Amino acid sequence: MRASRAGEGGEELQAERREKGRRKRARSDQEATGKERDKEEQPKIKSSKAVKTRKNVKNEKTKEMEEKQEEEEGEAEERNVKGKKKHGSAKKETREEDGGKRTVKEKAREEKKKKRKKVVETSSEQVTSEEDDNEEEDNEEKEVRPESLTPEELEMLKEAVDERKKLIQGLRGKPWSMKKKLVTLRESQEFVEKYEGALGKGKGRKLYAYKVMMTKKWMKFQRDFENFKTACIPWEMKIKEIESHFGSSVASYFIFLRWMYGINMILFCLTFGLVMVPEALMGRPYGTIPRKTVPRAEAASAMDFAVLWDFGGYAQYSVLFYGYYNNQRAIGWLKFRMPLSYFLVGVGTVAYSYMVVIRTMARNANESGVGDDNSFNFSWKMFTSWDYLIGNPETADNKFASITTSFKEAILEEQESRKDDNIHLTRFLRVLANFLVLCCLAGSGYLIYFVVRRSQKFALDGLENHTWWERNEVNMVMSLLGMFCPMLFDVISALENYHPRVALQWQLGRIFALFLGNLYTFIIALMDEINLKREEEKIIKFNITTWEASLYNSTVSENSTAPPITIQPADVPRGPCWETMVGQEFVRLIISDTMTTYITLLIGDFLRAVLVRFLNYCWCWDLEAGFPSYSEFDVSGNVLGLIFNQGMIWMGAFYAPCLPALNVLRLHVSMYLQCWAVMCCNVPQERVFKASGSNNFYMAMLLVILFLSTLPAIYTIVTIPPSFDCGPFSGKKRMFDVIQETLESDFPAWFSKVFSYASNPGLVLPFILLMVLAIYYLQSTSKSYKEANVELKKKLQTQNEENKKKNKLAALKAQTDLEEARKTASQSAELHKNNSASRQDQEDGEEDHGSCQRQYHNKNGRHPPPPVRDQDGQLPATRAPVPRTYHHVNHGSPGYLPGFPRQSEPKMHRVPSLQRH
Amino acid sequence: MDYTNDPVCTVPLALIVNMPELKENPFCGRIVESFSEDGMGNLSFNEFVDMFSVLSEMAPRELKAIYAFKIYDFNVDNYLCKEDLEKTLNRLTKEELTPEEVQLVCEKAIEEADLDGDSKLSYADFENMITRAPDFLSTFHIRI
């Protein structure tokens, strides 16, 4: 057979080589499975393969050749034309040959086995094989009948099916053209469809089919669920719109806002579901006990809007505040442990917040952890600085400008023109700027302290005889400071002449300090007030005992048999309840803060935009381009505002369970309001900063605020005894006594015993020590891991370089070898029968090279790349004498990206691309 | 148009580039070209879908890197040579930089990313560089 083909020239040669390669692979497959091949049958398989390969070449000569061969071996033709017929003929043939030595069935099975193997083999290289190849395969595959398969074959079939399934799943990530993807998908799906049902026998088969069906259903469900989830993400379209107009940094604020909204929603659910609703439904109704009743003195004005707006009157004596809750241990038919629930929700709020913030931080760090080195400064600037999301001309212009400036800055830095015209002046200015900022901070702190003290004086006088301003002074001053100080800082920072990114960080740090200072001054003032109230409380407590005694005495002295006088709960004298006062203060603060935010938004953004827009027609200079212009969206300021607002929520939530609800409302409104304001009256920032990288900065701030805001809350909970006549913990010495009470009365005796042992300092101290040790250990291991990581990175890089060099060398060598071989081949085409052995060796060598490449590539895509890579691209000179069919084998592969469509068929429109080399 | 007899029809580059999502992009022409089979920017439906599938958020980093390389490879020689970088830079900055600055930046970029010292960036160089870039994934996608 080989001899007959000998004269046909180079193309034949190629086909033969391929055939050999295939045969080799097939053989190795067979060896691996431990099945030996029947020698008689070998040529048949070979011939069928030869037919296949020749069909690919589509050459006139080969077609002639085909016919000849078909004459020689009659069955091969049938095999080609129709699969089923071929099956029959094969059976017949074998029967004739064997002459009854074996049973027909056995024989047929063996043949099938081989085909199965082929199927498995081709399925693994399916990706790279040509289409007509596949068609032929499909013809053959039809014959495989599941009844006659042995378990090993089943295994293999299963593997093949699984492989296809994996291929289908990973198809989206493959860098092929859509057409190829579609073809592969269809084929793989057909394959899977065909054999999935055929797998397994009897019981097993049913089970398998069931499993397959279930996985299909599950996949579909998952996809639907995924779609549902994306559809459920609120405000996604709004944010996308903003993103396309203003770039990712402005959008990052809104995403942050949405995230915050989610957290507050959960906090709200916790407090609403476990504290407010049970108390409102199952607790004693309004008006039954003094703490749930408006006192007689306030009753007249309790429904006035001014009072309600201040969260006094009916609002004060409602579930919104701490004081309303009763200290009854279990309420309702559910025996709901109200005080315990209140305490645990307070703790849970803080714990949940910590957990979420830290988890998000860790995830962010993971995502951006790779790009910490600065070794690709210019390349990154060049290839990743354009934000593909931008779809608005103005933003695009700004982006162009900011990219240009960033390049200029980088060039300046690169040139290291350490002129530093006057370093002393810059230093002086920076010191001066910091001094001024410190003055501002101190001044604002004092102002707040002063105002708070004054307001306390007003409060002692009675609020009624003061003006609106005097009553709301504290909140207004705080809001105004928060509004104007950042502007002042901005002006001052112009002195410093920092790099804009550094300047932004300084600015953020200063605003942070300002807010923090204000908040803590406020808290200190609040602590003063708490102490005052507690003094008051002592006096009232004393008065109450005397009042009760007198009441008792009077009833006793008048008439001992008369029923005791029932006192209206509204008339009972009561303490000042500092907890409710704290809650009220925080709620007022939040409300005024929200109001200022909205009003600044309306005045500063909307009104300004309207004025600029319409006064521009009749003004002496260009308002839009000149001085007032439109406002920019201040991402950092808004994020800071959000963070501080959240801090206040965390601080006050224990004393005012309504705070999370209020905050949810606020965030909801500001989402819509700010989206609208941004789209209608802001212009994109002049310096467009990228969002990534700053995310964790904000998160870190949030964490700091969370810590700082839980500190005072925990301090008050732990150290100050609760009021005697209001709130769920009244009558206890400390708020956390509720835990002990629960342990003693609700758990079995042994549990409290165990608990008391466990809380013994002798156990607690070692435990803490152990934790510290564990932290130390983890810390040090993480450090060493980091070091190892850096080391590995270095190694990887050097390895890469070395590999590259090696690859180049190998490619060079293989290329020259090939070249030589081809020369000899073309010189003695008619003698190549003798040469074929050496060529074959060479081919094998080439394949080895290919296989090592394949190993690397299988990680990315599962398809093995064509046998020769990386060669021709680097040695363009060797391309010229290569015959056309040689192209057929390895053109398209060399030096090509995996993403380029593999040009496997010599189509017309691909030709120019070949000539590029 | 007769779809029944000629189902394969393509949309020319000029039309696609005018999409609002691509309009402002300095590389819009390159994006479309690198997804078209003929290299001229005529997209069939499949290629169009392919383009936005690669540019979507779901696409893996490797895939995005491959196509980013193609987009920045202006002369389609499978290497990012200096001319490619110059073109990229000029498009990014609207030719605001002086030629000397452009030269400097291109040289620096090649120097940073070129591992095998052939003074042009192969795909491997590019991939190595781009996979470490912190902003690549967040900026190299289009939402439609």
Task: Please characterize this protein's 3D structure.
The complex is a heterodimer of chains A (917) and B (144). Among the domains of chain A are: 80 residues, no CATH class; 391 residues, no CATH class; 63 residues. The two termini of chain A are 38 Å apart. The relative contact order of chain A is 0.08. Chain A contains 33 helices and two strands. Chain A is mostly helical and 917 residues long. In chain A, strands 1-2 form a two-stranded parallel sheet. The longest helix of chain A is centred in the last third of the chain and has 67 residues. With 144 residues, chain B is mostly helical. Chain B folds into two domains: 49 residues, EF-hand (Recoverin, domain 1, Orthogonal Bundle), CATH 1.10.238.10; 84 residues, Recoverin, domain 1 (Orthogonal Bundle). The radius of gyration of chain B is 16 Å and the shape is globular. Chain B starts with 12 loop residues before the first helix and ends in a 5-residue tail after the last helix. The mean pLDDT of chain B is 84. Chains A and B meet through helix 10, helix 12, helix 18, helix 19 and helix 30 of A and helix 2, helix 4, helix 5, helix 6 and helix 7 of B. Chain A: One of its GO terms (cellular component) is plasma membrane. Chain A: Belongs to the TMC family. Chain A: This is Transmembrane channel-like protein. Chain A: Pfam families: TMC.
